[in-house]
Structure formats: structure tokens, C-alpha cells
Amino acid sequence: MLKSIIDFHAWQMHVYAEGKKAESVLGQVRRTRVVRAGNTVEQMVRAIADMIVTGQMLPGEKLDEISLAARFEVSRTPVREALRELGAMGLVDREPNRSAVVTNVTENYLHSMFEAMAELEGMCARLSAERMTVDERRQLEIEHRASARLVHRGADEDYAAYNIEFHNRLYRGAHNDHIYELVTQSRARLAPFRRAQFRLPGRLTKSYAEHDAIVTAIIRADGAAAAQAAYSHVEIVSDASAVFAKANVE
User: Fold this and answer.
1) HTH gntR-type domain: from which residue to which, for each copy (predicted)?
2) What is the pLDDT of residues 174-208, one digit of tens each?
């Protein structure tokens, strides 16, 4: 057990002593954030996905390649690639010889995806509690504590970027390549909805508290508690994200 190797209180003192390092880590996270508009495929996917999730583009609305190419100042080739990726996410439907249209993402469908995601994340958290190295646990806590600064500032974009890295650490910490592949694929499909949750009032503070329960369990090598905390976290994210699915069909 980890507690037999390192005294928990000494661990805490060491973590807080690494404040400067934490600032550097968060700086790296902020630099990797995806901008909200732009002309790369990745930027277009995010921009269009955000418009779909937040109801700026409604179910059944046509996504004309020429209009999108003009909007993003690109050729039609990257637009086609962006629409293909949006189709893989389940946000866009496209039939042969027809224009792409915005999918009607129902609340039930969204719930089913989050239900699967909760199971996978719970599994990753449990395995992380059992398998993470001492250094992996230390870095997880350092970055988690440092993210409180983003919450205090209300920096939702920066926190959303950090949140991706936080969950990626759980996936890598499971030390299982097959599970990593499954969970990252599932997360990619839910990314627009998971990102949208941070638009809701008070969500950053709640997310930090939920992360805290996961981190505490992992540090203590408590697999059952880590799994339950991670599962509950995704369930709450599901409820928060469902707000947008409801808005799109009302």
C-alpha cells in the first residue's frame, strides 16, 4: 500500500512545496487549449460542435460545404474532414449525394453514452489507485491542487483544457492499453457536451470538489473509493450536459 511507503502528511507537505512547479504545469495546459474559432480542421470541429451543442445550430439544419468554407476561409477539403469527424461524434448525419445535417441528439442517447463513459472512467480510476507509480500520483495531486487557481479566477476555458489532461492522467494511470483506447474513443464522442458543462453557473467549483474525491482516493490507493468517485463524477457531468440536449429539442 502507498501509505506504508510514504506518510500521508509528509506527502501533503511535499505537494504544497511544489507550488512553482504547479504553476509551470498549468501554464503548459493553458498553452495547449484549443481556440474557439479558426481555420484548422480541429478548430472547425470544435467551433461547429459548440454551435450544435449550445443550440446555435438546430437539429435538421443543413451544413453547406461552400458556406462553411467561406465562413472559415478555407477550401472545401478541410470542411469535408471536419464534417466527417463531427459525423463520427454523432453530431452530424450525412448521406451520399446529400448535404450534411445537424443530428438530433436525444437525451436518451446522450444518457446511454455517458452511462458507458461512467463505467469506463470508474474502471480507470480503480486501476489508477492500484497501479499508478509514486511519481504519477504526485503529479496528479500537484496539478489538481494548482487547478484551484483556475476555479478561483472563473477561467472556464483554461479549466476545460486542464480537465482533459486530468482525465487523461486517469486513463494512462490504469496502465492498460486496451482500456485506454476504449475510453479515449468514448470521450472524443462526448467532448462537446463535456466541454459545455463549464458554461453552467458554479460548475467549476463542483467539478474541482469531484476531482478532489477522486485524487484523494487514488493517493490512498483505495480502488473502490476511486471508482465510485469517478463514476459519480461522470454521472453528474451527464446531468449537467443533458441541459443542452433538452434545449435542442424544446
Assistant:
1) 38-105
2) 999 999 999 998 998 888 888 878 878 889 999 99
